[in-house]
Input
Amino acid sequence: MNYIDFVKLWEMHSQAPSLIAGDKQITYHALHLKVVSKIDELKKAGISSGDRVALFGTTSISYIINLLSLLHMDVIAIPLSIRHTETQVHERLKQSGCVKIIAQESSMNFKFSSRVNVFDMEEGEFSNHYMQLAQLPLTQPATIIFTSGSSGSPKAVLHTIGNHYFSALGSAENIPLKPGDRWLVTLPLYHVGGLAIIFRTLLAGATAVILQDDLSLSENLRLSAISHISLVPTQLVKLIEEETDFPALKAVLLGGAAISPEIVRRALQARLPLYLSYGSTEMASQITTTHADDPARLDGTSGYILNYRSLTIAQDNEILVKGLTLSPGYLEGDQIYPLIDDDGWFHTGDLGIIDSLGRLRIIGRKDNMFISGGENIYPEEIESVLLSHPGIMDAIVVEIPDEKFGFRPVAFLSLKEGLKIDEKDVSRFLSDKIERFKIPLQLLSWPGIGNDLKPSREQFRKIARQQINETNSTE
Output
């Protein structure tokens, strides 16, 4: 098959709910009509095939209708974060060669440049004009997602319809999804993990349920009878602390960051159907995932390679990937820069090993490594050991300059509620697990720096150096 026919898929489930947001739900038949109406509206407003159009707003039914309308108009959709500043938004518009944006008025806390054409995200009235929705070629450019920039400047990653399709297909072969299932949209749509939920549900005839921010995570799960959910570790911790008895829940897909073995153990004790994964924006979400009831979940592995992807480990332990989910390249204006080497592999920058059973274990990132007294230090190795401490919920290790050793590690720790950092206790805990030169020079409290799903290591690095400098200047 060289294309996706959404209309044919949606007609098969015409009276089933496609999207739910609180008390509002629309069937697949209504979704079809709303997309047709929105296309008519956007065409009259001056958006046409070949355009690049940004989306700026919170996750909503209107947002998803606009997204699907753009795809059916052969327009590249560019989801942007409402957390970004005015400068960051305009930098991303420039980087992606975009001068048109569909915005949710309630999310706009600044004015866009006069060079940018702004269109309303909210739904208009149904159009009387009927339009046959086009089949979407798998090769059609579909979206631009910006990388998190957690270890450098964000990159504009171009994805095709086929990238999203095969990502969803490989996921569903490992985590079954069928009509009647409900996947809670807990990740923002400017993250590839959030966008992947929409493609998975719409291709399976399942339902995407939009998270209600005024309810707790457990209330969302219980009240909407959620069967599937995607979480990052901090969200999983909140869920365990709130409640864990959800009879309808079939799968908890976990990714985005390293997770404490203690948290995994607690999740499994609570009978949460946990799937651990490794993925990337460039590969349109999941690359490897554990299987159902896989004992590897307690071993710190990220599971097995999914179908439609390939993975190998280079001599320096870098993870190389390719496959039908791999982006055609990074976008810079009108230029597309391919990601692959001469043999067709994308070098992820992540380091890992494959165990004897074919499971991937992540070691760290090449660009996070630093040298201390002539020794190579990978922050993720130290973080992994810290996360095995029963009182530590999250950990980030960064380097600070040191006159004698070049650099030394320091660690930011997020502890269980009510606990305080005890440097002697943590040092004793680490002393028989890692070499002495890897033990953090100082333990710092977790800073309140927003609610990003993937913390910026560079931001932690700046905070650490500022705090150390302030401490030294007062001594």
